Amino acid sequence: MTGHNFTPTALCWLEALLHARFGHNFELIQQAETLILMLPGSEQSICFDQLQSVFHQSRSDFSCQSWKATAEGFVAPIEDKLPAPSETKLPHPLVELKDNCTFIHYDILGLAYWMLTRLEEVGRADLDNHLRFPAISSHAFQHEYLDRPIVDEWLIILGQVIKRVWPQIELKQHKFSIKISHDVDSPSLYGFKPWLTIGRMMAGHLLKRRTLRAFLTAPYVKIGTRKQLHSADPYNTFDWLMDVSEASNLRSSFYFICGRTDPIRDADYEPEHPAIRNLMRSIHERGHDIGLHPSYGTFQKPELIKQEAERLKRICAEEGIKQAEWGGRMHYLRWEQPITLHAWADAGMHYDTTLGYADRPGFRCGTCHEYPAFDPVKQKQMTLKIRPLVVMECTVIDPAYLGLGISQAAEKRMKLLKKRCSLVEGTFSLLWHNSYFKDATCKSIYENILKR
Ligand SMILES: [Zn+2]
Do the beta carbons of residue 293 and residue 344 sit within 8 Å? Predict the structure, then answer.
């Protein structure tokens, strides 16, 4: 698509977005060079007169400007200077009142459209070794605003303009929340592995690492994993995770792998195993959620995601687990926009929470608020909700990615992102694998991050 105009369906979707943010039915009218925001029954309007064609294109190779909120009497939620992806220099002032129309000379809604629909990454070839669009290819990373929820920041400024234009209306208030989730890649370190592998692991414990305790634990846990996961299993952190969440009044979501499309990268358990069924029942009984973690090779194969979703729902039905909503996250965060998007919707899912980058933490979609998905290729609004992922623990800790290690620096980085979510009253979405508690420090970092 070329030009800088929105299609009628994109305008409808943007109106829905404005309604979700501000609680009012604004109308958007597309004219040749401007987009006009109106409130039915009012003479006043807001005109966006600097529409940008880059926000209707799949590319990251254009410049980024910035805008100082206080210079024009506005209050920015995070930092006074807002990053403003734009091909052209921003005019000053950015917000101007003329007659009955207030002009905003920056394409805030174009930015929201481009970031939220992930149009930037459609059809891209600069992918990583897992065929993912990596953070380092993104405009946000290249212009150092990946750690800023810029769509939320700009919508807060737009809210302040709206209050100037229509002082009599109340805008919807949002409240900060935390959403914690756990991809169950490995529910057990030993329980589901063949004896040959256990033998090799035991040899490693004894000869390489010289830990007699682990040497003895391995066969003990392997034999003891029958109807339930063994209490001595290092990866069986589920009860502890639920304890921590409950202590902070949070609900954890656990996403299970229900297929095997890659012999190495997928899970070693079958979701029908009695110990997994038992785990699912326990999660449900304690009031936490269950969801799907589609296997490695499914992200371009909607029919497989559907099969795996059906398998999970069948097992849950057999265990008497009923949930009002279903969703989850792609294994390895593999995602091709918009194929994977439609796959989730076609699998009957209500939400997806894949969209963060594996290689850098932050705001891949420019927001930490849930929003309805939109396919920028077919120009189709969907009922599927996107819940952006802000932090995956290994993204911050592992040397392959940001590499801060299990350290104060890692904790500080995660807390900074959490703080920024709270400053825009969004949701801090944190993924921490049940199998990723390498030591006591790791556990205490996790607990510290969840503390209010
Ligand atoms: Zn995974």
Answer: no
